[in-house]
Design goal:
The complex is a heterodimer of chains A (about 350) and B (about 150).
Chain A (H helix, E strand, L loop, with lengths): L8 H16 L9 H7 L1 H11 L1 E2 L1 H10 L4 H12 L4 E7 L6 E6 L49 H7 L27 H9 L3 H12 L8 E16 L4 E20 L7 E10 L3 H14 L16 H7 L2 H10 L5 H20 L3
Antiparallel strand pairs in A: 3-4, 4-5, 5-6
Helix pairs in contact in A: 2-4, 3-4, 3-5, 4-5, 7-9, 8-9
Chain B lengths: L6 H18 L2 H7 L6 E17 L7 E16 L4 E7 L3 H13 L5 H29 L13
Antiparallel strand pairs in B: 1-2, 2-3
Helix pairs in contact in B: 1-3, 1-4, 2-3
The chains are: A alpha+beta (about 350), B alpha+beta (about 150).
């Protein structure tokens, strides 16, 4: 417990004024605009949108500027802002099949309809610092070739057609919503996916990595990873029909995992699923691995006690705003708490010293 | 053979297509194409809120789940002749939402042809160009596999 204290107002005001000055940095260096952050630090913006759970690139860029580049602080600002917004409703489920593809790869099949499209990726770069970027200058234009209109169907759909994938199951059209109802365990897969979609990338990455190293292993292959723009469709009650209210960039990962078989089901591949705002493929792959690990019970696998299989552990700790809120509160004044601890230890020592040897 | 479509149904789908095109267009571009607005009364002033985006757990037919929210601005208005226009657009640009609602109303009256030429046709062409550019850059990064022959002798 901590108590309200007075007397720090002048110090707090001065601290915040200094913070504003430090945020600006050396005034002889031109100030960053929100548009520059939105355009040139896109992946940071994407991460703040994903973990802030609010798709709005300009707001995320503003939050990054205000937070001096501290992305968890920026996520905090976005989460606080979104609580002020009235909820207009929910969209129809986005149709990733109709995505305008920026990047689309499969690690399971070389030749897939629609092809392997690398897109603007860091893969195959040498990870050597490019000192040319320290100077200003326009990059050469990206290559263009005429695009064929060949569709790029989902790779797992091809396996599904042959009956080798576990079938997709239907569920309620109105899924549970973590922003409206507190987390209850055991959590439905829809709840788990909502939590993972807004979870801390580092935490989900670490858990996913732990499954690869043997803690709840699921033998994942990236069946397909796709990034691109998806239409957001919503039914407008006043109009009585569905229209597109915008477009969002999404990253989707579907994994093909070790097969299972049972008395009723033939051996078949199983699925893990990841879907994240923006271009966030590390997060999307991690999410699909953790999703698959959390499905052990419904797929009749053994509990190995691995952290990534423990829904309570994963869901209670994956949110970086909850985590940072609780973690950082211990730096706030706990003077009374600590006084009682001090009193206690002094009394214990007095009692011990008073005892005959 | 396509089934005959009733006027009401085709009107609705045309209106939905127009509202969708306008929502996807950049707000600043709309302001350039339609700088002056006719007089109107608000039925609902522009309001910024959130829409929960849903995904499916498994592409192509999985059950829905809540992915995260998106900012949306909506409004409704009535032109002097009584025609009502609605808007719901991504983002927080109230001017964008206002123009979409005005155009929605204008498209139901005698101005439809003028608006189609001055606003919708350019937006459609620009969107097609944006999409083609993305598709062509993506196509340039498509991997063309070829097989290396290994010497076995």
């Amino acid at each position: 417990m901590y108590v309200a204290t007075k007397g720090g107002e002048r110090a707090i005001d001065a601290a915040h004024a200094w913070l504003a000055e430090e945020r600006r940095g050396d005034p002889s260096v031109p100030e960053l605009s929100v548009a520059q952050i939105a355009q040139q630090l896109t992946l940071a913006v994407n991460r703040v949108m994903a973990e802030g759970s609010l798709y709005d690139p300009d707001l995320a860029a503003l939050a990054i500027k205000q937070a001096r580049g501290d992305l968890i602080e920026a996520v905090f600002l976005i989460r606080a802002y979104r609580t002020t917004l009235p909820r207009f409703g929910a969209s129809l489920p986005v149709e990733t099949e109709a995505m305008q593809i920026t990047r689309r790869i499969s690690a399971t099949f070389k030749d897939v309809p629609g092809g392997q499209v690398l897109g603007p990726t860091f893969d195959y770069t040498h990870r050597l610092l490019d000192f040319a970027l320290a100077a200003e200058g326009a990059p050469p234009p990206a290559a263009r070739v005429p695009a064929d209109a060949a569709p790029a169907p989902h790779v797992l759909g091809l396996l599904d057609r042959d009956g080798l994938m576990e079938p997709l199951t239907a569920g309620p059209e109105t899924p549970p919503d973590l922003t409206r109802e507190p987390l209850e365990l055991p959590a439905a897969r829809a709840t788990r996916l909502q939590a993972l979609a807004r979870a801390d990338e580092g935490f989900v990455l670490g858990l996913a990595y732990s499954t690869q190293r043997g803690y709840g292993r699921t033998h994942a292959f990236v069946g397909e990873l796709r990034i691109g723009l998806c239409a957001v469709e919503m039914e407008i009650p006043e109009l009585g029909f569905v229209l597109e209210i915008g477009e969002v960039e999404l990253t989707e990962c579907e994994t093909v995992n070790q097969f299972t078989g049972s008395k009723t089901e033939p051996p078949q591949f199983t699925r893990g699923y990841g879907l994240v705002f923006g271009q966030s493929e590390r997060k999307a792959i991690s999410m699909s691995l953790v999703d698959r690990a959390l499905r052990w019970e419904e797929l009749g696998e053994d509990a190995t006690g691995a952290p990534a299989q423990d829904a309570e552990f994963v869901l209670s700790h994956c949110d970086n705003i909850q985590a940072t809120g609780f973690l950082e509160h211990i730096k706030l004044p706990h003077y009374v708490d600590f006084q009682s601890e001090l009193e206690l230890i002094r009394r214990l020592r007095r009692d011990t010293e008073g005892e005959p040897q | 053979m396509s089934a005959p479509v009733s006027n009401a149904a085709s009107d609705t789908s045309a209106r939905a297509a127009t509202l969708s095109l306008l929502a996807r267009a950049p707000g600043v571009r709309l302001a350039t194409l339609l700088p002056d607005l006719p007089p109107f009364d608000w039925l609902r002033r522009p309001e910024v809120g959130a829409v929960m985006l849903r995904g499916r757990m498994g592409a192509g037919g999985g059950a829905p789940f809540n992915l995260g929210e998106m900012t949306v601005t909506r409004c409704a208005l009535r032109l002097a002749d009584g025609t009502v226009g609605h808007a719901a657009v991504q983002g927080r640009d109230k001017g964008h939402a206002t123009r979409v609602a005005v155009i929605d109303a204008l498209m139901q009256g005698e101005d439809a042809v003028r608006i189609e030429t001055a606003v919708l046709a350019p937006l459609r062409a620009e969107e097609a160009a944006r999409r083609r550019l993305r598709a062509e850059k993506a196509a340039a990064t498509k991997v063309e596999f070829f097989t290396l022959v290994r010497g076995e002798d």
